[in-house]
Amino acid sequence: MxxxxxxxxxxxxxxxxxxxxxxxxxxxxxxxxxxxSSPAELEVLKNLEGASDSIMFLDxxxxxxxxxxxxxxxxxxxxxxxxxxxxxxxxxxIESNLQSQLEDDEEQVAKPNSYARSLNYNWNQYYQLDDTxxxxxxxxxxxxxxxxxxxxxxxxxxxxxxxxxxxxxxxTKPGIxxxxxxxxxxxxxxxxxxxxxxxLLTSNVxxxxxxxxxxxxxxxxxxxxxxxVYTHTTDRMWRKTRTPYGSCxxxxxxxxxxFQWNVVGSSNNACSDTYAGPSAFSEIxxxxxxxxxxxxxxxxxxxxxxxxxxxxxxxxxxxxxxxxANVKDLKQVFDVSVAAMNKRYGTKxxxxxxxxAIYPASGASVDWAYENVGTKMSFCYELRPSSNSVLTGxxxxxxxxxxxxxxxxxxxxxxxxxxxxxxxxxx
Length: 427
Prior knowledge:
Elements: H1 11-20, E1 30-35, H2 39-48, E2 55-57, E3 67-72, H3 77-86, E4 90-95, H4 99-102, H5 114-118, H6 129-142, E5 147-154, E6 160-166, E7 175-180, H7 188-202, H8 206-214, E8 216-220, H9 225-233, E9 244-245, E10 248-249, H10 284-294, E11 300-310, E12 312-315, H11 327-345, E13 350-353, H12 354-357, H13 365-372, E14 377-386, H14 401-421
Parallel strand pairs: 7-8, 7-11, 11-14, 12-13
Antiparallel strand pairs: 1-3, 1-4, 2-3, 5-6, 6-8, 9-10, 12-14
Cofactor: Zn(2+)
Protein name: Zinc carboxypeptidase A 1
Keywords: Carboxypeptidase, Disulfide bond, Hydrolase, Metal-binding, Metalloprotease, Protease, Signal, Zinc
């Protein structure tokens, strides 16, 4: 979800990267933090989004008196400062060279095919797509009858959206669906999903063993494989799919679902990071994935989506401030889940309904699942770090993968138990 992040990619920069096959770089790109104090000032910022391919917003432009981070290419700095000054919009420089914040990423990523060489998948580093897929394939071999490799759909570039079904009881149980990595640059999301898979299979904690035994789990670490690969090969800050739209690429796969599509919190500009696509389910990723999820209707009763960052737990809706009919139950589960997240490391989560807690955002997967698949328990985790970590949000150190996984496992265990108490799971 995390848009928070209307990152309109610098097309000049990317054109060079795409043509040469080199990584996109952000040398001397400045990051400013600006605050609109009136609707008129907010409109000025909205007009900047998409107006220039060298001014990129890292936060949603939705609210006055709320900090909004902006990345500005070196040659565009004078124009940006002139606009800020002419409109008397408050701003401050928080980083003079964005590239310096991204330099250490490579040290925290397993080299390609490292799992194939070592057969030692772990959570001390971030893995590339193929290694995670090989690991899941191996799990199906190691746990016959318990782990089933499943394909949730296809991508524009022909990749499979692979996941695993975990059924430790080997009989049909109420289903829980977990989707992660729909936004490519949010690496901690798929890492947490794989941590969850491993815990469900190996943990000796009684509460974890219970939820592993009593439910069927459908877990997809990478709902946007093309985008994730692109963050490793070309542009670490990439968010969207890789479908070409004129001179721009990709739609936001979490604004493309066919419920209240493109109502609010999305863009019609194909260069925008919140581009909703030309139509609902225009992206093969969301279209095929939604078809797979629809095939599970009547089997899944809890839908969980992993994103980053901000330390929020969210529930429907994103398109309106109107609350779901069962908001009392959603809030009860929310309270228990956030409290459990806090116990191990003191990590503080806030949240609530998407529209009010974070920003307006229509066409999201959790809303679609809530309305179309009968999952009246539908939640989105915005994982570590907290919202004041603008420059490090997408590059959470690999040393934090395990702590993030541990506290999220605590939270999900409490969530499942509370959903069970409320009677939402059905055999």
